[in-house]
Write a structure and sequence with these properties.
- By secondary structure, the chain is an alpha/beta fold.
- The chain has one domain: 3-Layer(aba) Sandwich (Rossmann fold), CATH 3.40.50.
- It is built from 9 helices and 9 strands.
- The protein has a 9-stranded mixed β-sheet, with helices on both faces.
- α2 crosses α4.
- It is globular, with a radius of gyration of 19 Å.
- Keywords: Hydrolase.
- GO terms for molecular function: hydrolase activity.
- This is Alpha/beta hydrolase fold domain-containing protein.
């Protein structure tokens, strides 16, 4: 007997009911865990939606992509320097006039590159499909990610059709995987290591998976249609050298763009080593960039 496989197909995520809202801060609604995709052979993928309690019209969208070395992480975690904020960073963005989407994605233990950017593209499509339900203006969408999430945000922004997003923000993100060995201090990074985070993302050591390493590098995909970028990195980052962000900025300039690059003196990964004032400034610069990119003048 042959079982009709179409009966096993999940419902269309675009037609599923939205989660019941929570209220994590005054004036803020949180729809936690809306299913946006169900990849075959994988768990359902979900997104948290931070929205105002009341909005006068469709809102611009910030899509935040979490870090965690492509191996771990929580979709609503901006890092240890922000966990004590009250209200938190996403509630602050809502109060500033934005909707925020925080998707999860398949980690490297579940699927190799390019599954992660495929998932983010699926989330962007889902947001466009549900825009009327959620009060979103998805024509004004900015991607923002930290660490591995910054890498994925940049890679998604640079590999999707022009106009998919109007801007991209990266915090201390790897951008050129084949150049990591050169950018690290001698002996600090082994591109032949099959157990490194990059190897787990690529399905093999970067030195052996050279085509995949290039394809997974945002610098490879920079072209004339790239959206505007804001790129922030600490000068003392021991995990992802600041030179990685410089490489992305150089590639964007070579393609005719004018990215905003800021290197923060003494900053390590996750903004360790910065003062609270400097961390606040990183957030403020990000919000200001989003506001400029989603405003009517798009400056």
């Amino acid at each position: 007997m042959t079982f009709p496989l179409h009966l096993l197909a999940p419902p269309d995520p675009a037609a599923l009911p939205l989660p019941h809202p929570a209220h994590p801060a005054d004036g803020v609604r949180l729809l936690r865990g809306a299913v946006y995709a169900v990849p075959e052979g994988s768990r359902p993928l979900t997104v948290d939606l931070w929205l105002p309690q009341d909005a006068a019209g469709p809102l611009p969208v910030v899509v935040f992509v979490h870090g965690g070395a492509w191996r771990t992480g929580l979709r609503d975690d901006l890092g240890p320097r922000f966990r004590h904020w009250n209200p938190g960073p996403f509630a602050r963005l809502v109060r500033a006039g934005f909707a925020v989407a925080c998707p999860d994605y398949r980690l490297s233990g579940e699927a190799p590159h390019p599954a992660q950017t495929d998932d983010l593209a699926a989330c962007l499509t889902w947001l466009r499909t549900r825009a009327a339900d959620l009060g979103l203006d998805t024509a004004r969408t900015v991607l923002w990610g930290e660490s591995a999430g910054g890498h994925l945000a940049a890679l998604t922004a640079l590999t999707r059709s022009a106009g998919t997003v109007v801007g991209c923000v990266t915090w201390y993100a790897p951008t050129d995987l084949p150049a990591l060995a050169e950018d690290h201090p001698e002996g600090a990074y082994d591109p032949h290591d099959p157990a490194g985070f990059e190897a787990l993302l690529l399905g093999g050591a970067p030195a052996e998976r050279t085509d995949a390493a290039r394809d997974a590098s945002p610098v490879t995909h920079v072209g004339p249609q790239a959206p505007p970028f804001l790129i922030l990195h600490g000068t003392d980052d021991a995990l992802v050298p600041a030179r990685q962000s410089v490489r992305l900025a150089e590639a964007l300039r070579a393609a005719g763009h004018d990215p905003g690059l800021r290197l923060l003196d003494g900053g390590d990964h996750l903004w360790v080593g910065l003062t609270d004032t400097d961390v606040e400034d990183c957030f403020t610069r990000t919000v200001d960039f989003v506001r400029r990119r989603t405003g009517d003048d798009r400056t």
